[in-house]
Amino acid sequence: MTTIDAPRTPARPARKGGVNWEKWGWIYMRASGLVLIILIFGHLLINVVLGQGVKQIDFAFIGGKYATPFWQVWDLLMLWLALIHGGNGMRTLVNDYAYNRVVNRILKWAILAAVVVLVVLGTLVIFTFDPCPAGAPADLVASFCPVK
């Protein structure tokens, strides 16, 4: 005789003790989503809605923004939260649909590697951006740059 598991019986029994990473991932997704809404709409408001719209965005505009630590931190928070939020969402999809244990691990490591590489590269761009590059034409650099 075959017995059928009761509804909502977990496929894998829950571990006893330790950190509940799924719970913290769920909390992170909600908290980072709320903060991202504020960061993204603030970003769009400043960069697109106020001023001259999209046509104002050029190298000098970005150079002027990144000359102040406020915008560096704003964009850094947006970058980190968005990438980690997206990586965690992709991890959840892999857990839901990749049943093969080896494929599951490979995909999760690939997501982690992509998130880490993009976070490192984005952070480097934000903090090493030079708004006054040597040898650049005067009409392409920010107005605060000294004429060379």
UniProtKB/TrEMBL annotation:
GO molecular function: metal ion binding
SUPFAM superfamilies, sorted: Fumarate reductase respiratory complex transmembrane subunits
Keywords, in A-Z order: Heme, Iron, Membrane, Metal-binding, Transmembrane, Transmembrane helix
Xref: InterPro entries: SQR/QFR_C/D, SuccDH_FuR_B_TM-su
One matching Pfam family: Sdh_cyt
Record flagged with keyword ATP-binding: no
Compartments where found: Membrane
Transmembrane segments: 31-50, 70-88, 109-129
Gene3D superfamilies, alphabetized: Fumarate reductase/succinate dehydrogenase, transmembrane subunit
CDD domains: SQR_TypeA_SdhD_like
Superkingdom of source: Bacteria
A GO CC term assigned to this protein in UniProt: membrane
Keyword check for Transmembrane: yes
UniProt-recorded name of the protein: Succinate dehydrogenase hydrophobic membrane anchor subunit
Organism field: Leifsonia tongyongensis
